[in-house]
Amino acid sequence: MYAIIATGGKQYKVSEGDILRVEKLGVSAGDTFTFDQVLLVNDGNVLVGNPTVEGATVEAEAVKEGRGKKVVVYKYKSKTGYHKKNGHRQSYTEVKIRQIHIPGAEA
């Protein structure tokens, strides 16, 4: 079984037990977080949302927070002596997917 969720302006295909890095959620390590923007769920039959699947949620546990590798941004204009160097490190939250809840399929 897998689901496609949307968070931080991106879409992720997740299954139970997966560990992935998403944009910073603002939760501390060990806390649980629920993704309610579930776009698609596949558990043998496919449920496609319009735009989201009504009542479907994905429960995840925050493993850690961190910052990614530095990306160097270098601006340069020839013949004018203009150059500017800048760096950026994107914050992320690493989450472990615990459970995918599907409406009407409670066991």
Can you describe this structure?
This protein has 107 residues and is mostly beta strands. It contains no helices and ten strands. The mean pLDDT is 93. The strands form three sheets. A four-stranded antiparallel β-sheet has the order 2-1-5-6, with no helix packed on it. A four-stranded antiparallel β-sheet has the order 3-10-7-4, with no helix packed on it. The protein has a two-stranded antiparallel sheet with strand order 8-9. It is elongated and about 65 Å long.
**H and E string:** EEEEEEEEEE
Name the structural class: mainly beta
DSSP strand count: 10
The coarse overall form would be elongated
Question: What is the secondary structure topology, with strand pairs?
Answer:
Elements: E1 2-7, E2 10-14, E3 19-23, E4 32-35, E5 38-42, E6 46-48, E7 57-67, E8 71-77, E9 82-88, E10 91-101
Antiparallel strand pairs: 1-2, 1-5, 3-10, 4-7, 5-6, 7-10, 8-9
Summed up, what is this model?
With 107 residues, the protein is mostly beta strands. The protein has strands at 2-7, 10-14, 19-23, 32-35, 38-42, 46-48, 57-67, 71-77, 82-88, 91-101.
Structural key phrases:
four-stranded antiparallel sheet, 107 residues, elongated, 0% helix, 10 strands, mainly beta
